[in-house]
Specification:
The protein is mainly beta. Helix content is about 0%, strand content about 35%. The relative contact order is 0.13.
Length: about 375
């Protein structure tokens, strides 16, 4: 008896990549893709489309691997840091900044910078605060360039976060906070101070973020938070004893279209947290189970170099990470969060060697 084949058309591939099983498995979702490279979803559309290309910013290269990119003052200036120890700004092209900390910063390969904007009352300026956990913190503004951050901040402070009108930094298992409204005063007399975070448990702090009117503090395998109006060791509450973060630079707030989450890389994959009715007020969830086989290719020993961005207009979480034995990110995944109360859908990008990124407002 002759075998007859029947074509079965599928018109909806709106659920993104699914690699939990093979694409021939009966359990494979009809609305999923087995591969989806350099394609994205336009907001909540179910139709994947080709990803836009990339354009080089400027014609000059920074003097080494780019180890940090930042938006100064919401679109005023793009700032870059390179592994040659220098800090750059973009005008008509990339040029070295002025100031005492414009050069001479660490040249150790693989060290990555973090940054945030806050006000400095001593200089009466909006400052970009940049840290890497090795050099003393740096402040930047368009007049003075890169200078040491004053006010006696923690010398090894890293992961700068603004919460409750204070600048926070972290070193070891201690959280440090500045005076109210002033990144340039860390004195006890001025209202600054520090709190230890579950000292002796799960090592050092690996990241932090302000979310849902709380300060979230990550270690490698655990997660904590401080609620609004509370600053003390006793006020720190543990949320999770199995999930922390491997890279502060992957932590992003995902918000819009009825979505309000914090998303990041843990030791296990990509996680999320959102307000709930549980006793702690929050619960963690795996945000990328459908692409776990892709994420399992990561180089677990170098995930500190992974980084992520959130593109609000497109509702996309873009994350780049090292794989196999590589130390520089070689693979990227894109999570589309545009469908409220529905599963995140993921695609891939094959852009290689992306070591840092930023979202930049092209105009104020």
């Amino acid at each position: 008896m002759a075998t007859r084949w029947r074509e079965e058309p599928h018109y909806n591939f709106g659920d993104g990549i699914y690699q939990v099983t093979s694409n021939t498995d009966p359990k494979f979702p009809n609305t999923a893709l087995f591969q989806g490279v350099n394609i994205v979803y336009d907001k909540d559309s179910d139709d994947p489309s080709a990803m836009h290309g990339a354009t080089q910013v400027g014609t000059k290269a920074m003097g080494g691997v780019v180890s940090g990119l930042f938006d100064y003052n919401n679109g005023d200036k793009a700032i870059g840091v390179a592994e040659n120890g220098k800090i750059y700004e973009f005008g008509s092209d990339w040029e070295e900044v002025s100031g005492a900390r414009a050069t001479g910063n660490t040249t150790t390969a693989g060290v990555r910078w973090s940054g945030t904007m806050f006000f400095g009352a001593t200089t009466s300026k909006n400052l970009l605060i940049m840290t890497n956990g090795i050099d003393a913190p740096v402040r930047y503004d368009t007049t003075d360039g890169a200078e040491p951050l004053g006010g006696n901040p923690p010398a090894g402070g890293d992961f700068p976060v603004v919460w409750q009108d204070r600048l926070w930094m972290f070193d070891g298992d201690t959280a440090y906070y500045s005076a109210v409204g002033d990144a340039e005063d860390w004195s006890t007399a001025g209202g600054g101070g520090s709190v230890s975070v579950y000292r002796g448990q799960d090592g050092d702090i690996t990241g932090a973020a302000a979310f849902a009117n709380s300060l979230f503090i990550f270690k490698r395998s655990s997660l904590y938070f401080i609620g609004a109006g509370l600053i003390s060791t006793a006020a720190i509450r543990n949320i999770d004893t199995a999930v922390g973060t491997v890279s502060h630079r992957t932590i992003q707030r995902v918000a819009g279209s009825d979505t309000n989450k914090l998303v990041w890389w843990s030791e296990h994959g990509i996680e999320s947290i959102e307000p709930t009715d549980v006793s702690s007020g929050f619960t963690t969830r795996n945000a990328a189970r459908w692409i776990q086989p892709l994420l399992d290719r990561r180089n677990v020993d170098n995930m500190v170099r992974a980084w992520s961005l959130f593109n609000l207009p497109r509702m996309e979480y873009f994350s780049s990470y090292p794989v196999a034995t590589g130390t520089i990110p070689k693979e990227s995944v894109i999570g589309n969060f545009a469908r409220p109360h529905r599963r995140v859908r993921w695609t891939r990008a094959d852009k290689l060697n992306l070591t840092a990124g930023m979202t930049f407002n092209v105009s104020n």
